[in-house]
Write a structure and sequence with these properties.
Length: 140
């Protein structure tokens, strides 16, 4: 893991974070802000910062373990796995732990599950697209 690899995921992380929030709606910003007793605007900013970190970890750490030989398969499978990892870590463990809720309370109808899966797919797609545009696809 080096800083150049991590930087590759920053902008895709921001965009995927916006997509997540667009899907999940303003209630998600309230929930994120509520973790630190703040309003929805602070929740929005915090969510984008978290998205930057998660995007950087995707390109700096996760991508090296998910190379299935085809960029579309990497997007489909890698994005799904990464989204589910962050749904479990972020939505089911970290967020409830910080806000004082119960951890690992699975609600398959909550927008958090699908939001994280959408985030993972969008992030993986944007990284592949960015790398192709920058001529970096084959060397990474």
């Amino acid at each position: 893991m080096n800083s150049d690899d991590m930087r590759r995921g920053v902008i895709p992380g921001v965009i995927a974070g916006y997509i997540f929030l667009a899907y999940a709606g303003p209630g998600m910003q309230d929930m994120v802000g509520g973790m630190i007793s703040a309003d929805a605007f602070v929740g929005f900013i915090l969510h984008i910062i978290i998205s930057i970190v998660i995007g950087a970890l995707y390109t700096g750490v996760f991508m090296q373990y998910v190379d299935l030989g085809n960029p579309l398969v990497n997007i489909a499978v890698g994005g799904l796995i990464y989204g589910l990892i962050w749904w479990i870590l972020g939505g089911l463990i970290i967020m409830p732990a910080i806000s004082g809720g119960e951890m690992l309370q699975i609600d398959l109808n909550h927008p958090s599950l699908f939001g994280h899966v959408i985030f993972g797919h969008a992030l993986a797609f944007l990284v592949v697209l960015r790398d192709a545009a920058m001529g970096m696809g084959e060397e990474k």
